[in-house]
Design brief:
Layout: E1 6-7, E2 21-22, H1 33-41, E3 47-68, E4 73-75, E5 80-81, E6 88-93, H2 98-109, E7 137-139, E8 144-163, E9 166-186, H3 197-206
Antiparallel strand pairs: 1-9, 2-6, 3-5, 3-8, 4-7, 6-9, 8-9
């Protein structure tokens, strides 16, 4: 299985699923009187603790196995959406500004994250909508069926925010890193040993039973 290109993309936005109270808008401004009171009680120089942090490639778009002749151009342009994620922050206790929270998670992971307030990408929608200007193409090395797709670098984590040694806020964050993986591979080839979850999911969905790519 051949790895596709991994490219930065300005239009892939972020993930989601919220329970409990949700922090304010992109600038962290609370939306209710109760949230204003909670924010007033939260310190501004507290510390974050990150728990249950997960990071994985998730398939968002795909075109199932299609036959190409040797030398044909195989592109991700025609891949269709198969899953969508939405950026979200759910909180319990004092409200914490969303951008500040995601920015600290980005520092913890040492990578840029959508919603951390540091790039123009934060102005795009909050869901994983694909920008067709960002695509990949390669030449088919042999005749056969090829699968194309895209995957997002999804990040989820639980947090605790403490002031003076006391936890005043906790919750869950869903977002993704500033990359969009382009997937192109032949169903007739076995997957690479380092193939990620996005590629393997594309093989399961896009290739036929018995194809080497599904092994």
């Amino acid at each position: 299985m051949k790895h596709g290109l991994t490219t930065a993309i300005a239009a892939l936005v972020v993930a989601a699923g919220a329970t409990g109270c949700t922090s304010g808008g992109e600038d962290g401004a609370p939306r209710s009187g109760a949230q204003r009171l909670a924010t007033a009680k939260a310190c501004t120089d507290g510390t974050y603790t990150w728990l249950n942090v997960s990071r994985r490639m998730v398939l968002t778009d795909m075109k199932a196995g299609t036959h190409y002749a040797k030398g044909d151009k195989v592109s991700t342009v025609d891949a269709k959406e198969v899953a969508r994620y939405t950026r979200s922050v759910s909180t319990r206790g004092a409200a914490v500004p969303e951008k500040r929270l995601i920015r600290d998670l980005a520092r913890h992971l040492k990578t840029g994250l959508y919603g951390d307030g540091t790039t123009m990408a934060d102005n795009v929608p909050r869901t994983t909508e694909y920008d067709k200007q960002a695509s990949a193409e390669q030449t088919a090395e042999a005749s056969g069926r090829y699968v194309t797709g895209r995957a997002a670098d999804l990040v989820e984590a639980d947090y605790r925010y403490a002031c003076g040694g006391r936890t005043v806020s906790s919750g869950h964050v869903v977002t993704w890193a500033h990359v969009n993986e382009m997937i192109i591979f032949s169903c007739g080839e076995k997957p690479a040993k380092n193939a990620d979850e996005g590629e393997r999911e594309a093989a399961r969905l896009g290739c036929r039973e018995g194809d080497p790519a599904r092994s």
